[in-house]
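Researcher: I'd like a candidate sequence for this fold, 407 residues long. If you have to choose between options at a position, lean toward the conservative one.
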């Protein structure tokens, strides 16, 4: 009968950490497997062959010891699984074979942090930069939870995922944000299962991965008009932020990333034709005077881009867009105060407001959905062939006329 025992080797230097190692015993043959985990002699219980969780130690040291215990338990479980696999084959095996298999698995294993980084690069290489950013945000969050300590996918279980959710809530993240990070991590985990890096144990079943109803993120037509009528001529940054917000609204709630990447060549023969960066769906929007007025006020003369959000084509386009988005959203908070609007004003509010106002004007839901480029909705796919562009342009024109009249 093969067995695994955890052992501790005291350091030859006084007051230095000793080394933990495994003792593998099979058919009276005893061999050792070293580990990189170290603890002090006072943290070891020789009688129980276990790590001691002392009460009178610093919180950081306690966290370190907990991490070591977690990793040791996982490594021991992995060794026991190897032994079980050899037993199931129904043949004799040696201690050396156990150790060789253990070392082979260790060298071939891809860690969680490494795997996520690989997925980020894969997404970038396929042009999915926005999704790669969400993976990067989740990775930074998960690394913070782990105190920078990497792990293998086999360590991920229900308890660890519940701890991660609790960690995020302690740091003030709302439930929709924690759910978002957990959904991204679950997607990575499921891909790792498909790639054979671990077995599926459904570790996310006890955490919340849904989407809560959010607070109001749409404003009325009257509130949009109050924003439009503000005199911001003495504060150009606020004036620009306001105009970009209105441009999004005029363009049927066009997302900020699509506005930023619009090029002058997208405007021709009285129409804007572009592909949504999120879905790749092509949209056609009739060019209206209100849109043209904004372009005239904010020309981007030295660039191929339509608006001066991205002004240099030197490989920093995405950084320019992200910095501009942060700045504009910051300015929109000030604009909301000036217009006496009591919700946090962001670029997303323009998109949400167009849909809300369109609905209030009895514009069919299928037209609203198609107008906003929601090609992932079943209703949009059903009506895609039958809804004419002119119907959507007419709906948008109706909203813009209402805004002009101030109704």
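Model: Candidate sequence:
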């Amino acid at each position: 009968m093969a067995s695994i025992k955890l052992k501790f080797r005291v350091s030859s230097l006084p007051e230095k950490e000793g080394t933990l190692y495994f003792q593998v015993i099979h058919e009276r043959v005893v061999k050792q497997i070293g580990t990189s985990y170290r603890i002090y002699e006072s943290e070891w219980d020789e009688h129980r062959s276990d790590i001691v969780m002392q009460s009178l130690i610093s919180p950081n040291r306690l966290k370190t010891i907990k991490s070591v215990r977690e990793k040791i338990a996982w490594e021991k479980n992995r060794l026991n699984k190897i032994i079980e696999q050899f037993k199931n084959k129904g043949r004799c095996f040696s201690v050396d074979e156990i150790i060789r298999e253990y070392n082979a698995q260790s060298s071939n294993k891809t860690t969680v942090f490494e795997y996520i980084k690989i997925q980020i690069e894969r997404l970038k290489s396929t042009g999915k930069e926005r999704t790669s950013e969400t993976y990067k945000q989740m990775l930074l969050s998960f690394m913070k939870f782990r105190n920078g300590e990497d792990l293998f996918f086999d360590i991920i279980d229900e308890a660890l995922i519940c701890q991660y959710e609790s960690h995020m809530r302690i740091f003030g993240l709302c439930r929709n944000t924690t759910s978002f990070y957990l959904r991204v991590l679950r997607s990575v985990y499921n891909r790792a299962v498909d790639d054979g890096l671990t077995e599926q144990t459904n570790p996310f079943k006890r955490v919340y991965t849904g989407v809560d109803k959010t607070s109001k993120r749409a404003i009325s037509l009257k509130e949009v008009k109050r924003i439009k009528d503000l005199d911001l001529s003495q504060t150009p940054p606020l004036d620009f932020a306001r105009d970009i917000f209105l441009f999004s609204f005029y363009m049927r709630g066009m997302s900020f990333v699509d506005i930023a990447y619009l090029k002058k060549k997208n405007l021709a023969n009285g129409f804007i034709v572009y592909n949504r960066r999120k879905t790749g769906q092509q949209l056609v929007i009739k060019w209206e005077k209100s849109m043209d007025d904004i372009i005239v006020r904010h020309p981007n003369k030295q660039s191929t881009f339509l608006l001066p959000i991205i002004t240099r084509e030197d490989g920093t386009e995405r950084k320019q867009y992200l910095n501009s988005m942060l700045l504009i959203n910051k300015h929109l908070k000030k604009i909301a105060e000036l217009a006496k609007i009591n919700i946090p004003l962001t670029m997303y509010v323009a998109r949400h407001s167009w849909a809300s106002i369109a609905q209030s004007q009895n514009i069919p839901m299928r037209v609203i959905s198609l107008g906003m480029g929601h090609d992932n909705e079943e209703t949009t796919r059903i009506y895609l062939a039958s809804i004419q562009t002119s119907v959507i342009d007419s709906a948008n024109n109706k909203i813009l006329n209402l805004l002009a009249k101030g109704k």
